[in-house]
Design brief:
The chain has 140 residues and is of the alpha+beta class. 44% of the residues lie in helices and 14% in strands. The radius of gyration is 22 Å and the shape is elongated. The mean pLDDT is 89.
């Protein structure tokens, strides 16, 4: 397998910085033709977001009697489905939460929070909310 040489680029306003000097990285390449692709880095969901999600699902489990893994699967099916083309037909795929970015996870949690209130009358607080510590102690 070919060795991968990489460096990151950060742009803030008019300033561009590199994790390694591009010329130094490029000088390591063997002779040949290369294609360079630049993709924006994604921050994966945070541990805090994941912990909050499972705390909320524990609350919903205790309040509704539905196992928290089933609550997770339900909300993934409800909010994380997408249609893909597969072998000439359209298939529905359900994404999990483990590969969501921070922004996608925030969107997912916002929808879970709204649905729990609408469907079950359950208020799911955020860590900065006034009664979060009490909520945390109840459902941890």
């Amino acid at each position: 397998m070919a060795k991968v040489h990489s460096f990151s680029i950060t742009k803030q306003g008019d300033q561009v910085s590199y994790s390694k000097e591009p010329a130094a990285v490029l000088s390591l390449l063997r002779n040949g033709t290369y294609t360079v692709t630049i993709t924006r880095a994604r921050e994966p969901r945070s541990i805090d977001q994941n912990s909050l999600m499972w705390l909320w699902f524990t609350c919903i489990e205790q309040e509704t009697g539905t196992m928290r893994q089933d609550v997770h699967d339900y909300y993934c099916k409800r909010f994380l489905t997408k249609d893909i083309e597969w072998n000439g037909s359209t298939e529905i795929v359900v994404r999990g939460t483990s590969r969501l970015s921070k922004e996608e996870m925030k969107w997912f949690l916002d929808n879970v929070q709204a649905d729990a209130l609408t469907e079950f009358g359950i208020t799911l607080p955020l860590p900065e909310d006034r009664y979060f510590e009490e909520f945390y102690q109840t459902y941890k």
